Amino acid sequence: MTIFPQLEIPETIAAGPGPGNTDPRVLQRFASAGVADHMQADVLRGMIEAKLMLREIMGTSNIHTFGVAGTGWSGLDVMFSAVMPGDKVVVFTNGTFSGIDGLTVRMKAATAEELAANSLDPKPASVTIIDVPHGESVTGEIVEAALARHKPKWAAMAHWETGSGRINDLRGFSDACERHGVMGLIDAVSSLGVEDFRIDDFPGVHGWASCPQKGICCLPLTYAPVSFTDRYIETLRASGTRTFVHHPIMEARHWGIIDGKDVDKGSYHRTHSAYAVAAFHEALRILLQDTVARRAKDYEFHEAALRDAVTAMGCKVTSNMTSLVVLNLPDKLAGREMELVQSCRAAGFGIWPTLSEPVQVRIGILNLLNQAAIADIVTRFGAAMNAMGADIDMNEITARLDRHFETAMVAQ
């Protein structure tokens, strides 16, 4: 028998698309929670309070607003559980993760025969994938044309696509869904808690799913926020779904939502972790204290600083997100993106490549909203490029960065 040494994981800077850097206050709540079962009174109270805080953060009166145990994929699976075999769906993709959303929908909507024909990559006749090229955004015009032509029951889109760093047109999507009577489903994994928006302002969208470890700044394996309109729940209740664990109505019961109403105490659905509940609860408290509006402005400001610095290094930024910069390296280093990323990660600087062609570099700033953190990212990235022969004057880059922050201080 081999017993390995105790696992030691060093501190690194998570400067990719996610997971982000969990707030120390969240880690403290996680570590200090007492050992308690999932029906203990304080655990249930924490879940109900978290549900109410989520409604504030998401900007909704949807009763069915709660957290799904797991990562963002768990929340998305709950949202897509209402899609049944044979349902007509249009999915808009423009990167890796919206592409996986598309695969999820194809698996859900495939008939038994269609799934058996290609179980890992089914091609159901009822699903239309509108593939927008990498580096481009899904526009309202694209959505309008597709829904007018195909007239589906459901339409799905990622709000922010971290595979390519592009923001898609949420307003245009919602308006088109409303015009055509389509139930919209939105992957808000990367936008919730980063962009300042209220989901109730988009009535064409009936299902929302996000994640804990990006804008919420919590641990990856805690709770993925979801929210559903009454129309979504009525549709699900009528059609049913072939899942117990990821059944939106059954999941909601543990969060004190039964028969479309808030109740004082949740009922059993699955085993919940007291540690996860405590961490998630604290992350929501912190976000409400900061306010989504303030945090959104902070992301805009710090992304602009990072964007300016890497552009001055000769990189070309192709993204328009505020928590993530996606870039092409200077011509001198073109084709060496993976080499650069690997050398950075080996030094405890966790940046990422894109996961689909063309290969680009992704640098994220999730929960790194201060001058010292941005300066550290810029310094590390510049040093890595210089080690590969970029010949960047880092004194000039540092001066540019300082001017960006000094201008903000003067303005205040």
From TrEMBL:
Binding site for substrate: 362
SUPFAM superfamilies: PLP-dependent transferases (SSF53383)
Domain of life: Bacteria
Transit peptide listed as a keyword: no
Modified residues annotated as N6-(pyridoxal phosphate)lysine in this record: 214
Biological process terms in GO annotation: glycine biosynthetic process, by transamination of glyoxylate
MF-aspect GO terms: alanine-glyoxylate transaminase activity; L-serine-pyruvate transaminase activity
Name of the protein this chain belongs to: Alanine--glyoxylate aminotransferase family protein
Organism: Paracoccus methylarcula
Taxonomic lineage: Bacteria, Pseudomonadati, Pseudomonadota, Alphaproteobacteria, Rhodobacterales
